[in-house]
Amino acid sequence: MSFRVVRSSKFRHVYGTSLKREQCYDNIRVSKSSWDSTFCAVNPKFLAIIVESAGGGAFIVLPHNKVGRISADHPLVGGHKGPVLDIAWCPHNDNVIASGSEDCVVKVWQIPDSGISRTLTEPVVDLQLHQRRVGLVLWHPTALNVLLTAGSDNLVIIWNVGTGEAVVKINCHPDVVYSACWNWDGSRLVTTCKDKKIRIVDPRSGEILEEAIAHEGKAV
């Protein structure tokens, strides 16, 4: 008796299937900003996308079940005076989102459970200290109301969103900070910079614990 050996592919489950058009989000004018950041953010309740907007920066917030063609006049979150460069949902509250912009301001917004029914221009709090555009916003993974921001002024700031105060200013980067990431409990911070270095930083003191050249290209 002969046996047929079937060799299954290790990649048989990695291919996705496109949803039907009526199950997708259509007619959204996604931002054309060249800044390398998060133009789309999602949490268990909402989808947020940075969009093209006249007269300042804006992003759209949609409940998960609002699929299909989105009206061109759908309400936006639009309080910034310059293009929005980065957005991040709070990991501790699904109705709270932060945004950073070319106008040097970080704004924190409260989104109603049902979504927004009119354009939202008044944030919960404005965080103002950066002198140049803010391209990175990042919530602390375990501490409530703690937000990290980084701008083209080479400054990393850790905020208490509840009071609107900057609690730590990290000024150890000689050039633009491209990205940052907390470790699992938020006790350490890793950053990449235009100077090609990766740094591990103590977020409480701003002290550089380790640093190394990462790549020999133009930037990390």
What do you see in this structure?
This protein has no helices and 17 strands. A 4-stranded antiparallel beta sheet has the order 6-7-8-9, with no helix packed on it. A 4-stranded antiparallel beta sheet has the order 10-11-12-13, with no helix packed on it. It is mostly beta strands and 220 residues long. 0% of the residues lie in helices and 39% in strands. The N and C termini lie far apart (60 Å). GO terms for molecular function: actin filament binding. Keywords: Repeat, WD repeat. It comes from Cotesia congregata (Parasitoid wasp). InterPro entries: Coronin, DUF1899, WD40/YVTN_repeat-like_dom_sf, WD40_repeat_CS, WD40_repeat_dom_sf, WD40_rpt.
